[in-house]
Amino acid sequence: MKICFYNEGHIGDLLLNLPFIKLLIDKYPENEYYQYRYGTGTTFHDSLIKGVGGLSYTEKMDGDINIPTWMCNKEYAEWVAADDYPLVDHFSVQEFYWEKIYKKHGFDVDIPADLGINYNFLLESQSIISIGEYAVKERKKVLIFNQKTRSGQADNQDYKSYLVRIANIFDECDFLYTNEEDIDSKLILDNNLIHTPTIFGNHDCDIIHNAYLSLYCDIIVGRANGPFMYSAMHNNNILIKDKIIIGQHNGNDRKDDLEIYFNRSIYKARNILTKTTKETFDTLENLLWE
């Protein structure tokens, strides 16, 4: 049987479903599983999909079963959690829906309480080598996702001036930023503000490259959007006690910091919610002074 998943959301929405798709693949490996590449205004690069073993991408939504995985899809409109239902993180939200999705399609799948995001990093060998060569530098490394949001979940104040300022204050640290900025190198006193593609090269989509690089960084910072989530919510980061993650989001009515956790019950990293760009960089600065 051919099963095709499709998601009308953006990159973060895709990511949040991958652990639940993987559970289905592992339970019923005899099926063929595909992720449709197109969301609403978003194309999901194949590198964001192929890290889940058994899942391929497709240009056509032509499965024997086509399963929507954006939980605002009209097919799920009647599935509404009661006000006292404990929605405390993305895991609890997705679990609420996936229990019903599995049942709807006749699948018997147990959802473990310690489920996390654990896709494979499928990178070309040269990028792995280049990131490894950078990783051995004995300097504190701060990875900053300076992409702006597409869904209004955080302010989109430009990070540029904050990047320059913090790099010059803490010249003993490396500050890595993911999206190109028009920054005059003469403004940086110690050459410690680094655009991440200068480490691993230019690629059509470098979300997985930045996620792999994040494993070697002490602090991860950014607005809670898809590229940030692919790094900040991976098990190889959140299970590290000494890792610090700063996620910027406006907050959630159910639980204020819900949006920066996948499965809060398994976190060992220090996970901090900030709500404005200024608060994000003030928090980072205070941490670096500690």
- What radius of gyration results from the CA coordinates? 19 Å
Question: Could you give a short account of the major beta sheet?
Answer: 6 strands, parallel
Got a strand count?
A: 10
The named CATH superfamily of the largest domain? Glycogen Phosphorylase B
SSE order, one letter for each helix or strand: EHEEEHHEHEEHHEHHEEH
N-to-C CA distance: 56 Å
Tally of alpha and pi helices: 9
Q: Give the proportion of residues in helices.
A: 25-40%
- CATH-scheme architecture of the largest domain: 3-Layer(aba) Sandwich
If strands are numbered along the chain, what order do they take across the biggest sheet?
7-6-5-8-9-10
Oligomer: single chain
Write the CATH fold name of the largest domain: Rossmann fold
Helices and strands, with pairings:
Elements: E1 2-6, H1 11-27, E2 32-36, E3 55-58, E4 65-68, H2 90-104, H3 125-135, E5 140-145, H4 160-169, E6 173-177, E7 193-195, H5 197-200, H6 207-214, E8 219-223, H7 226-232, H8 235-238, E9 244-248, E10 270-274, H9 277-289
Parallel strand pairs: 1-2, 1-4, 2-3, 5-6, 5-8, 6-7, 8-9, 9-10
Helix pairs in contact: 1-2, 1-7, 6-7
Protein described:
- The chain is an alpha/beta fold and 290 residues long.
- It has two domains: 2-104, no CATH class; 135-289, Glycogen Phosphorylase B (Rossmann fold, 3-Layer(aba) Sandwich).
- It has nine helices and ten strands.
- It has helices spanning 11-27, 90-104, 125-135, 160-169, 197-200, 207-214, 226-232, 235-238, 277-289, and strands at 2-6, 32-36, 55-58, 65-68, 140-145, 173-177, 193-195, 219-223, 244-248, 270-274.
- The strands form two sheets. The chain has a six-stranded parallel sheet with strand order 7-6-5-8-9-10, sandwiched between helices. The protein has a four-stranded parallel sheet with strand order 3-2-1-4.
- Helix 4 (160-169) links the parallel strand 5 (140-145) and strand 6.
- The protein is globular, with a radius of gyration of 19 Å.
- The N and C termini lie far apart (56 Å).
- The model has no long low-confidence stretch (mean pLDDT 96).
